[in-house]
Amino acid sequence: MASARAIIELFDRQGVTDVIGVPDNSSAALYSALAGHPRIRVRSVTREGEAFAMAMGLWMGGRQPVLLIQNTGLFESGDALRGTLTRMRVPIVCIVTYRGYGKTMRGFGKIPDQLDAELLSRSDVDNCAPITEPTLRAWGLPYEFLHTDEDLGVLEAAFQQVREADAPRAVLVTRDTT
């Protein structure tokens, strides 16, 4: 698991000013730890699509926002991602909690490559997991994985990569933050 404290320390080093999103079970500890932060402002939205527009506006105003959403919300916000961050090449890190990853990995040992109606309707599969990575690839959003604190270098590198590419990037958090 990745610790909220370590992620917040990384945010501080990267100059993050705002964390935007809709809290979920996996990110609850991180949102809770950010609640009293003296410099990083949490901005909750009602739908994840709003988060992309807000992040773009904050970035245009000179702030350094980060998106923190669940993969289900990412699916909901596809057009907002396409029309703002991707189209306008806005360099924002999108931290996406990967609902269903653990259950799917336990059941299959990996995320299945082949998607079909039979797989996506199985009761032992959280169908969010198998469609997350293909969706990100289809939208042209590069991504890496954050499993534990040992992978925090991936998140740190994402900040440098978005600046170099002038484009967004996702980091998939596969376990609940603590």
Your description of this structure?
The chain has 178 residues and is α/β, with parallel strands linked by helices. It has one domain: Rossmann fold, CATH 3.40.50. It has nine helices and six strands. It has a six-stranded parallel beta sheet with strand order 2-1-3-4-6-5. Helix 1 crosses helix 2, helix 1 packs parallel to helix 9 and helix 3 packs parallel to helix 5. The longest helix has 14 residues. The radius of gyration is 15 Å and the shape is globular. The model has no long low-confidence stretch (mean pLDDT 95).
List keywords for this structure.
178 residues; alpha/beta; Rossmann fold; 9 helices; 47% helix; globular
Whole-angstrom Rg? 15 Å
Flag low-confidence runs.
none
Level-2 CATH architecture: 3-Layer(aba) Sandwich
Q: Biggest sheet, in brief? A: 6 strands, parallel
- Strand order across the largest sheet: 2-1-3-4-6-5
Q: What is the chain-wise order of helices and strands?
A: HEHEHEHHEHHHEHE
CATH superfamily: Thiamin diphosphate (ThDP)-binding fold, Pyr/PP domains
Distance between the termini: 7 Å
* SS strand fraction: 15-25%
Number of domains: 1
> Can you count the helices?
9
CATH topology, by name, is Rossmann fold
Helix content, binned percent = 40-55%
The overall pLDDT average reads 95
SS class: alpha/beta
Q: Provide the CATH top-level class.
A: Alpha Beta
Identify the overall geometry: globular
Total strand count, please?
A: 6
Short summary:
This protein has 178 residues and is an alpha/beta fold.
SSE arrangement:
Blueprint lengths: L3 H11 L3 E4 L6 H7 L6 E4 L3 H13 L4 E6 H6 L1 H9 L6 E5 L3 H8 L8 H4 L7 H11 L4 E4 L5 H14 L3 E5 L5
